[in-house]
Write a structure and sequence with these properties.
Low-confidence stretches: none
InterPro entries: DUF3723
Number of helices: 3
Structural class: alpha/beta
Mean pLDDT: 83
Distance between the termini: 27 Å
Radius of gyration: 15 Å
Order of helices and strands: EEHEHEEHE
Strand order of the largest sheet: 4-1-6
Number of strands: 6
Largest sheet: 3 strands, mixed
Shape: globular
């Protein structure tokens, strides 16, 4: 049986509002020490959300992506309707640290 390549399902990268990012219950348990460590790193080293190594893998249906992508003003910004969210596979602690680190008007992360 042939293995399915992730490339077959990859739809692109997008800048997503943190409020629109969710995680499944099986994703790592919350570790406050890890969030504190990340916050310290963000403050001392900065936080480069545009570096592909820092992108968070996420899942979104083609239907949701198609309808929201067309409504987005800038191609790199993915604006989801209030009833939709983007489920991410990991990066929970980065997102929690980013919520504390960035001002409200700058609450986004790149998702692949």
């Amino acid at each position: 049986m042939e293995s399915v390549s992730a490339r077959e399902y990859f739809l692109g990268n997008a800048r997503v509002q943190i409020r629109d990012i969710t995680f499944e219950s099986g994703v790592r348990d919350f570790d406050e020490a890890n969030v504190t460590r990340l916050l310290r790193n963000f403050r001392t080293e900065g936080c480069n959300r545009d570096d592909p190594m820092n992108f968070i893998p996420g899942l979104i249906s083609k239907e949701t992506l198609g309808s929201t992508w067309l409504q987005s003003v800038q191609p790199q910004q993915l604006s989801l309707p209030p009833t939709e969210s983007l489920t991410c596979l990991h990066g929970k602690h980065r997102v929690l640290a980013a919520r504390e680190f960035f001002p409200p008007r700058d609450q986004w992360w790149n998702v692949a």
